[in-house]
Amino acid sequence: MSEQLAIELEGIDKRFGAVQANKDINLKVKKGSIHGIVGENGAGKSTLMSILYGFYHADGGEIRIDGKTVTIASSQAAIALGIGMVHQHFMLVENFTVLENVILGAEGGARLSKGIGRARAELKRLAADYDLKVDPDAITGDLPVGLQQRVEILKALFRGADILILDEPTGVLTPPEADHLFRILRVLRDEGKTVLLITHKLREIMAVTDEVSVMRRGEMVATRETSKTSMGELAELMVGRRVLLDVEKTPAQPGAPFLSVEGLNVRDARGVDVVKDVSFEVRAGEIVGIAGVSGNGQSELLEAIAGIRPARSGVVTIDGTRIDLAAARRDPAEIRSYGLAHVPEDRHRMGLVTRFHEYENAILGYHRDPACGRGAFLDLDAIRATARAGIEKYDIRPPDCALKTANFSGGNQQKIVLAREIERDPAVLLVGQPTRGVDIGAIEFIHKRLVALRDAGKAVLLVSVELDEVRALADRVLVMFDGRVVGERAPETAESELGLLMAGATQEAAE
Amino acid sequence: MTAGQMPRWADYILMPAINVAAAFFVSGLVVLAIGENPIDAVRILVWGAFGWNEGIGFTLFYATNFIFTGLAVAVAFHASLFNIGGEGQAYIGGLGVAFACLALDRFVPWWVTLPFAVAGAAAFGAAWAYIPAVLQAKRGSHVVITTIMFNFIAASLMVYLLVNVMAKEGSMQPETRTFEDGGRLPLLDTILPGVDFGSAPANLSFVLALIACVFTWVLIWRTKLGYEIRTFGANQTAAVYAGISPVRITVITMLISGAMAGMMAVNEIMGSQHRLLIEFVSGYGFVGIAVALMGRSHPLGILFAALLFGMLYQGGAELAFEMPAITRDMIVVIQALVILFAGALEHMFRPALIKLFGVLSAPATRPA
Fold first, then answer.
1. Nearest to B225 among A308, A350, A376 (CB)
2. ipTM for this prediction
3. Tally of domains in chain A
4. Torsion angle of alpha carbons A316, A322, A328, A329, nearest 10°?
């Protein structure tokens, strides 16, 4: 372990229009180390990494890789310098197979078949070495988010990167999956590779990094040796104040069942049964959390209840209205009208139209309401007033409802979705990954809102791959494995027991 | 991250202006290369289109066609549908106009025929877009492929009808009989006092086209249907989440698009030719794609783009007449350059312009 530097950044500046995303950034990353970069959403972490990976050009400053000053004009240049990146929002061609995605940009000659053959062998080796199993012939878009991320990691590894940048890699992973990833990262480090880990989860920083740098509002505010700092200190550096990581709530007062699901079966586009005979109830005034490793049917469960995904069979009852999900005409708008609101797992793909103004997203799914205008027309004044009320109540920043939604940070985008779904006073709220890619300040706020909704006597169904989050928020925990609900536990149940359930341990024992 | 870095006026006005300037610059080089003076050429072109009354009349007449076909493409664009079947939809729309005019022209004045002609044009144009729309919505057959094939089907169908079914008795011409006064729209200069467009066929359809612009603007930005169209166009998954049926939106959008294209026939058939004849669309449907691109799918932009193309058509004809070295084909080259720069290379100057505005808007705000 020498003191040789793999990456050295000096005085990096980047400005988007009026927004200074990176201000005079200095960073030294030692070769063969795992270096964490933490900061709230919008602190400029992703921008900095995009500069390093050649997506953006810095307005000023110098980049040195292995001591040599370089200009990184494109991602190809970055790859040539041995930099690999796993993005927060995946850069995958959805209708390519896993194998095709992995070799994309590294096809190796004009004849594809040769490259594919080599890639298949290499992929097999990587899968074995790092236990990153993915069907190389599956269509990437059909894979659940967790598996898509594995493809991203494989892609970088396939290119033999010396410096690996991971942008919020554990956002979609369960604790065991994250631990698995960290094992891989340690192996890579021990082989002399350099890992840059971008995250806002302090626990991960403490668990895996050697050094950590903290960003706030576009500036690099501190670099610490991980062993000589604490989560408390890092959190303070990130937000400039102490934050409460626990959720305060009183015991639940469950009432009548507001949501009941009976015999739900879902088959996906590949013909695989992804939800198998699932039945449960959520009562008024309680939060039911669904824990499970990503890709065990939770996403499909939510989408089927909301009427977005076809079900093979199953009946849901929402606030007294029975709906046969297998009926020919499923209409998310109709189901919504019975009092069901839905915060989808992936706000970019489903929950928002990012190129719309904020106020246009504030009515998505509710645009046919008379409140949005009578008859065929939109009442823009009323819509903007609603949007502004949401912005105020949910502290959405910047407080400008005419701003394009893409220009809000992740946490604020999530608040836009939450404001829209919660403020219509639904009887039932479905929430998927409410705090994925959201900064600490916003997490706290979102958790409080969900608890407040429960205390107002509503039923909340929470799906999250953050076991901490499920345990902190839920009054009852259902564990899903391989499309089935394999157990119900109290949230106080030990993490290890829940982990075993999530890994399907009891099911194997039963068979 | 790239959007929203420029003020809107730059996006809608400055960008197209720069693109057109670039197209004219390259055209100037071409004119130079064949030994003519490009400054003179531009002078003749602009004068030919706007310098005299008859020229203005022709420019407005051509622009009317481009407004309808441009709006047709734009409406579909908002739903991320690429309707390149405007040519065929306009052609079939001519049938609707002709049926109305042939049925009524001998019995009622033009203003009674007009609503039937407009409705006929819209209905026939929409019907021609309906089949590709349903194939796209329910079977996933791409509208680009099906609409372009429907252009050919429309052409063959019209030849058959005009030769074998609708042709005037005893005539070898593939066209219907000429409409009487009840099937003819008044010329613009007979409505507007103190204006004389000479022999130019600019007619009441221009007003109809302006109404169509306002209609499109209201539809897209002020109605719930327009909101659904834009949502579907921007993010189909979010549209499904919001309870917007992809099938319904695809079909409705294509129907509106086809109706817009079909209405182009009112201008040509009822406003100018006064009979249904073969190949009256002659490329307006295709140029509508360039008009929509250049107008950024906004009705106001389309109005200006349509006027520009009207100017190129009319001024170009004058230019070919005044400068013998510049043939009809050279005019097509110039038009093609405008299409190239405004359509295909639409974003070429964008990064530079964004940089420029980044430098100009110095006041710093905190990152969000």
1. A376
2. 0.86
3. 2
4. -100
